[in-house]
Amino acid sequence: YFVNRQSKKIFTWYEQETSTNELFNGRLHLVENHPEFGRASVNLTAIRESDQGWYHCQVSFPNRSPSVRNNGTAYHLAVQGGSLIRIPPVNQTIQEGQTAFFHCVMKYPDNSQASWYKDGVLLQEVQDLVRRSYMGPDGSLSIDPTMMSDLGEYECKVRNSEGELQTAKAFLNIQYKAKVIYAPPEVYLPYGQPAVLDCHFRANPPLKNLRWEKDGLLFDSYNVPGVFYKMNGSLFFAKVDENHAGSYTCTPYNDLGTDGPSPVISVIVLRPPIFSVTPK
């Protein structure tokens, strides 16, 4: 199955695998599990003025001769509006450190002005981000290098000299190795009481595994009575005793790997105060 636009193949679907023309990459997808549409229906997002034209879907049979028969349906797409933005931004997913690029090509750059917002805040007010970003003369935005804090919704606003305004939004998903973001040098646990030892991390894609070490050796809570893993990877001590004191490190992992172990966390077990001399 494939989709043609003005005699050019822009989308193919064969044995559950899809491929998309560069101009439609990230914007053209199969419509899945929708009762009102056929299995070969597609969804086009982030419409551009240049998308206007005739589209033709056709079924082919690679193992038959001839492979293509006179079948399929033609559709005409008329794009209305778009008076100020010629090419809007598109959602994208990249890894931390790579360059992010958002189109916001102004139709009339000579009498229009573009501005960018992140999560509703003017980009110039996001100090950490503005130092790594650049807006081209056509209104497009690039961020290099990207950081995990750049994840969010970006909005381009174009206003012309007559006061007309057009906006377009796209989401930037930043993926990175699982990393520890904070580790206290010392943690005090109360003797004889329940307690939790946390590993403060971030991960995108989500966490898959978390490894604890104690005094340089693997700490497996399944082999230590009274110690359990919580859903977020923290260690839960049902009843703290002196055997739980030591030097701990945690290492989070996701599909991209790990950024390394945490600094050493010294766990100190504190007993409740007692009288050294009792009154007479």
UniProtKB/TrEMBL annotation:
Biological-process GO terms, alphabetical: axon guidance; dendrite self-avoidance; homophilic cell adhesion via plasma membrane adhesion molecules
Cellular component GO terms, alphabetical: axon; plasma membrane
GO molecular function: cell-cell adhesion mediator activity
Family annotation (Gene3D superfamilies): Immunoglobulins
Keywords noted in UniProt: Immunoglobulin domain
Residues covered by the Ig-like domain: 66-173, 178-266
Pfam family membership, one: V-set
Name assigned to this protein: Protein borderless-like
Source species of the chain: Drosophila rhopaloa
Protein encoded by which gene: LOC108037687
